[in-house]
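Dear colleague,

As promised, here are the two records you asked about, laid out in our usual form so they can be pasted straight into your sheet.

NAME FIELD: protein one
SEQUENCE, THEN STRUCTURE:
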Amino acid sequence: MPFRPQSLLRANGRPRRLAGFTLLELLIAITLLGFILTLLFSAFRLAQQSWDSAERHMDQNNQTLAGRAFLDNLLTQAYPFRWKKSPIQKFAFAGDAEHLNLVAELPPFLGGGLQQVFLEVVADEKDPEKFRLLFRHAPLRQEAPDFEAEGLSEERTILDQAKKISFFYYGRDPANPSPLPDAPSQWYPEWRE
C-alpha cells in the first residue's frame, strides 16, 4: 500500500477527497462571472450615455440663456437714431416677423459704439423644423439714407435649434390712427413707422 499522509485519510482508512473545484464547477463560475461583467459593462455604458446626454442638454440650455441675455441687452441698447438723409428722417428701426434692423450701442469686442444691427431668422440646414437667429453688424454711417450692409461683419448665431423664432412689434395701428391718447395698442408681425 502506498504511503499517504495521515491528513489525507479518513477515519476508515480510505483516501479523503482533496478540497477543490471540479471542471464543471469552474465552467459555471466563469459563465456566471461573464454574465455579471456583461451586466456591469452595460450599466456603465448606460450611465455614460445618460451623462453625455445631460451634458449636451445643459450646454444647449446655457447657449440659449446666453443668446437670450445677449438679445435682451442688444434691444435695451437700441438707439433712437434718425436717418438724416432720408426725406422723412425716419427712425433707424425696421422689421418684420423674420428680420429686425436697428441701431444699437455695441460692446467693445464687437467694435463698440453705435452700429447697424441686422437680426435674421433662418431655418436650420440640418433640421428644417428648427430655427436659428443670426446676428450681423456694420458701422453706422451718419450720412446714409437707410440701412446699408457695407462693411458687414460675419454672421454669428445667437439662438440655435429653436422650435420657433419670430419678431412682433407692439403699438397702435397706423392704418386706423386715433386722436385719443389711450387708444388700444396691440402686437403686429411687422414694424410700421
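NAME FIELD: protein two
SEQUENCE, THEN STRUCTURE:
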Amino acid sequence: GFRAESPEVFEGGAYVPLQTSGRHAERLVAFARIADGHVAVAVAPRLVAPLLRDGGTIDWDDTTVSLPSARAWRDVLSGRGLGTREGQITAAELLADFPVALLGGTA
C-alpha cells in the first residue's frame, strides 16, 4: 500500500545513505529515497547475534539513525507515529515492533 501511495519515491526517488551513530552503528544499514516532498526510509540490522539478550531482544545501547528533514514520520509497518530528537531516532525505537523499519514522511 505504501508503494502505491508514493510511487514517485520508489520509481525515481533520489537514493540517500543515512548516517548511523553510537556503539552499534556499523550493525545498521539505513537509506532514504526522496522525491516530490515525499520520503521513504528503510532500516535493517546486520550481524546482530552478539547483541541478543535473553528473550531474543537486542540491546541497541545508544545507537541512532539520522533522518532527513520531514514534518512527520510514521512507521509504515506498525502504523505508529514516530518522534525524532533533532533529526535523530534511536535504533531501539525504530526496531521496537519489527526486525526492520520502513518509514514514510513528508518534507
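A couple of things worth noting about protein two: The CA atoms of residues 29 and 44 lie 5 Å apart. The radius of gyration is 14 Å.

Best,
R.
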